[in-house]
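Late entry, evening session. Most of the bench is empty. Finally got around to the prediction I had been postponing all week. Sequence below, unchanged from the version circulated by S.P.
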Amino acid sequence: MADLEMLKQFSLANGISGYEKHITRLMKTYLEEYADEIQYDGLGSLIAIQNGESPFKVLLTAHVDEIGFLVKNIDEHGFIQVQPVGGWNPRHLPSSLMNIETRDGLNIKGVMALKQQTPKEKVLTVDDLYLDVGAFSKQDVLDMGIGKGDPVTPVSDFIMMQNEKCVLSKAWDDRIGVAVMVEVMKRLHHEKIYPTLYVAGTVQEEVGLRGAKTVAQMVQPDLALAIDVTFSYDLPGGEQGDVRLGNGVALCVMDGSVIGHTGLLKQLENICRNHHIAYQLDMDLAGGTDSGELSKVGQGVMNLTISIPTRYMHSHYTMIHLDDFEATVDMLVAFLKEFDEDMYMSMVEDKR
């Protein structure tokens, strides 16, 4: 059963790209009990290691960063212009509550507002918006401790829906993947597994898969799985597809950054069928994941993206289904417990 307190803490922690220390510190507190060693790369990604019976390296990644903003400019009246960090739809932003973290660690609330006289028919951009912290001059804002480059994060709540398997919060992209990795390491803590397991919370995914690249160069894995979120194609007026909230773990055949390794895909499908784990096949060409860098390290790494379906991605409130979380954990645990050299070679041969 999902640890709801852990999910709440992970999703509500502030940590936009480049400013992830709160979530990596929190992640560390959960992993210390289960890891044999914890390391960091030079960008701040956290890597927890659980020793196996062989030096064969399996790497799981989930990015810890969320989308947000940076303070870009403060005008003479005390209104703040922001710089997006990651991909935002500006239509989601007017009247949104935001948190600015100052260099001194103070948290100051502000409301995102739409500039007056903006035509209703205009396609909005972030330049049409500003942040109001209740100031009346630039000096007021500076006196609060706010400065250029301070991170701005959405303020949200952790909400269990009436259907308690559906949970609404911010930053499920990709804090739900981080939670999956912690739960996998927890369940394997007293198990003997063949590979040495590396679990990494990667930074700066939303601005270019940067942490995935440095982590993979550091670990040099033999096999790597990126755990992320994907779209649920079940919403009114939108594209309808096979991947839907509550229908299980999504195995990514292809996205905008990678084509999944066919041998690995077939093996994970077999794991799901043999263990009666609900799964779906995902194909989303609109975006990319850590896999875009993990697959290209060295001579090439056997790789696939594992996804949890979500509704309303890249907004203040994203919805997940706890059955999908459990299916993802169950599949990864079963795969790692059954993984051995023979399984690996059978996957390798699928490409030759």
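Two things to note before I forget:
The mean pLDDT is 96.
The first strand starts at residue 37 and ends at 40.
Will write this up properly tomorrow.
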